[in-house]
Specification:
Elements: H1 9-17, E1 34-39, E2 42-47, E3 58-66, E4 77-79, E5 82-84, E6 89-92, E7 97-101, E8 107-111, E9 117-121, E10 126-131, E11 135-140, H2 143-162, H3 169-184, E12 186-189, E13 195-198, E14 208-209, H4 210-220, H5 225-236, E15 248-250, E16 253-255, H6 263-271, H7 291-301, H8 305-323, H9 344-347, H10 364-384, H11 391-408, E17 409-410, E18 415-416, E19 418-419, E20 434-435, H12 453-464, H13 497-509, H14 513-530, H15 553-566
Helix pairs in contact: 1-2, 1-3, 3-15, 4-5, 4-7, 4-15, 5-7, 7-8, 7-10, 8-10, 10-11, 13-14, 14-15
The chain binds alpha-D-glucopyranose.
Alpha-D-glucopyranose (GLC) binds next to helix 4.
């Protein structure tokens, strides 16, 4: 405990360590690509690389520790800075090597992916250099080297946990783990002068995804506003000539159109029967326009006027890109003033039933985000870009809000719907086919200030309806009454922390602070019940959906953001 009763960095590191099961949360360190998982009584080691499955990146099949009598010493305890096998400990020695030591009479058994096995006396200590292409290189070290390595990593994690947000007591243990998740997911992007990108998950997604970076920055701002700014800066750093922001920034470049998709991704799209697996011309790929929202939140934590002006200019260009027509390769594909998603990936909700039919798709979440983003831009520009004319943004926000009601509000069903490809010639009734799916996409207009009362009331009723969105563990991404609802399949029913957090803000906007708070409480409870910030959760059991990845950065960041808010 510190003087003011808040837990110390060491206590928080210990709390986080309690969650490092080496299955859902591997042993790793900020900026290292190495991940250490449990394997029998010992461990195995992987590297983490962009768009390569964990199995392809195995560098050590097994590392087992034996005592002087040849008995196996199993893993007994994990802390952020070391794995303990009892008398022997394993830690990092720099970013690319492990260090083992503690009991000179013990030994270590290694099994490499090529089948080679070797036994090494630990003696005063060993350094194990692990590289994807070179296997493992073991070298003897003088006695203090292992102690130094342990102390160095303990100091590094200590400095990280110093910055961990202090929150309400019942949320602090999970907050400590979530803070660890953010630190653990820092990856160096060598091509970008050592930039520190927090990736969605070193286990599953090794790159900087556009909207993941927004959510990550929003949580990170409470402890490390500078690193939060770095995430946004990386996300905004590589716009295309027309202002479009790329879907992903990674070590080999960016993913900005369907041409940049790895072959494995196209194969998945083809298997899912997607209409855009093999487009005839490259389709732009990005993520939803929540950039100004994230920028405002990060600046609220710590002001940085010059930096803000630079970033805001990029956000404005990306907002204009959404409204640009096909002649500029923009995203208002039918030029009707209401932009479309040209690819499911650009929505962030890849396999939502909304995208089962032909694309482009006019969607109410996109319209809502765009209304809000023009208003956010106007407010930010008034402060950071005094020469920028804000009136066009406010006028466009009004227009988009009106079109949202005109085209996507279904007064008979009393909900927002999406529409398939249309001609843009609405007068002649070629409005694009109505997409009947009842999904979280249709609830996002709650975020729009000044939404007509009738629509707002209908959305609140949907959120409160136990047959649709008021499920025991939270707000599903597809209504439980929709024929496509599945409690396990990615965006087809499970609870995601980002959509829940965005709807909670919508409830605030709709003048419902108590309901907003209740949804936030429910969301943090879910993460605690589910055992960590997983990628998505089964809304019936409140547990990790089977195929969801773990130690997922935006779930961790938004848990922290919600916890801070609930602790005020
Ligand atoms: C999945 C999600 C998308 C996210 C990406 C990285 O593709 O559908 O929203 O940005 O993973 O986490």
């Amino acid at each position: 405990m510190t003087d003011d009763g808040a837990p110390s960095a060491a206590e928080l590191a210990l709390a986080a360590g309690g969650h490092l099961d080496l299955v859902t949360a591997p042993f790793t360190m900020p900026r290292s690509r190495l991940l250490v998982f449990r394997e029998g009584d010992g461990v195995r080691v992987h590297t983490s690389e962009y768009e390569r499955g964990l199995d392809e990146c195995r560098v050590l099949d097994a590392l087992e520790v034996l005592d002087g009598a040849g008995r196996v010493l199993p893993v007994v305890d994990v802390q952020p800075h070391r794995i303990s096998f009892g008398s022997v400990t394993l830690t990092f020695d720099g970013l690319r090597a492990l260090s083992i030591g503690g009991d000179p009479s013990a030994s270590m058994l290694l099994a490499l992916p090529d089948g080679a096995e070797s036994r090494h006396a630990i003696g005063p200590g060993l350094r194990i250099d692990v590289a994807a292409d070179r296997g493992a290189l073991v070298s003897a070290q003088p006695a203090p080297a292992h102690e130094y390595a342990l102390a160095a990593l303990e100091r590094e994690w200590g400095a990280w946990f110093d910055r961990c947000p202090r929150v309400r007591e019942d949320l602090q243990d999970m907050a400590a783990f979530c803070w660890w998740v953010l630190g653990a997911n820092i990856v160096e992007l060598p091509a970008l002068e050592g930039a520190r990108a927090i990736v969605p998950s070193k286990i599953g997604y090794v790159g900087l995804w556009q909207w993941d970076a927004y959510f990550i920055a929003v949580g990170l701002r409470h402890g490390d506003p500078e690193l939060a700014r770095e995430q946004l800066e990386l996300a905004f750093r590589f716009p295309r000539e027309n202002g479009q922001l790329p879907d992903v920034v990674h070590e080999q470049g960016v993913l900005a159109t369907s041409d940049d998709l790895p072959e494995s991704d196209r194969a998945t799209l083809r298997r899912a029967g997607s209409q855009v697996a093999d487009p005839s011309a490259p389709v732009p790929l990005t993520k939803p326009p929540l950039a100004a929202w994230a920028l405002r939140k990060v600046l609220e934590a710590e002001d940085a006027p010059e930096w803000a002006a630079d970033q805001l200019e990029r956000v404005i260009r990306s907002q204009d890109w959404w409204f640009a027509g096909p002649e500029r390769n923009g995203s208002d594909l039918d030029r009707d003033g209401l932009p479309e998603y040209g690819h499911p990936y650009s929505s962030g909700l890849d396999d939502s039933p909304v995208f089962d039919g032909p694309i482009p798709t006019t969607a109410p979440d996109l319209a809502a985000y765009l209304v809000q983003q023009d208003r956010e831009i106007a407010a930010l520009a008034a402060r950071y870009l005094p020469c920028h004319d804000t009136a066009p943004h406010l006028a466009r926000a009004e227009r988009t809000a009106a079109l949202l009601m005109e085209r996507l509000w279904d007064p008979a069903e009393r909900r927002f719907i999406a529409r398939g490809p249309g001609s843009g010639d609405h007068a002649s009734g070629h409005d694009g086919e109505r997409i009947a799916s009842d999904t979280v996409v249709g609830l996002m207009p709650l975020r729009v200030e000044g939404l007509p009362q009738d629509a707002r009331a209908a959305l609140l009723a949907a959120i409160d309806d136990p047959e649709r969105y008021a499920l025991e563990w939270g707000l599903p991404t597809v209504s439980a009454s929709d024929p496509d609802f599945s409690p396990e399949r990615m965006w087809r029913g499970p609870i995601w922390i980002n959509t829940s957090a965005l709807i909670a803000e919508g409830l605030d906007t709709a003048g419902q602070p108590e309901r907003a708070r209740a949804l936030r409480e429910q969301t943090v409870r879910l993460v605690i019940h589910g055992g960590g910030p997983h990628e998505y959760f089964n809304p019936r059991t409140g547990l990790k959906a089977e195929r969801a990845t773990t130690a997922f950065a935006w779930s961790a960041a938004l848990f922290l953001d919600l916890a801070v808010e609930l602790s005020r």
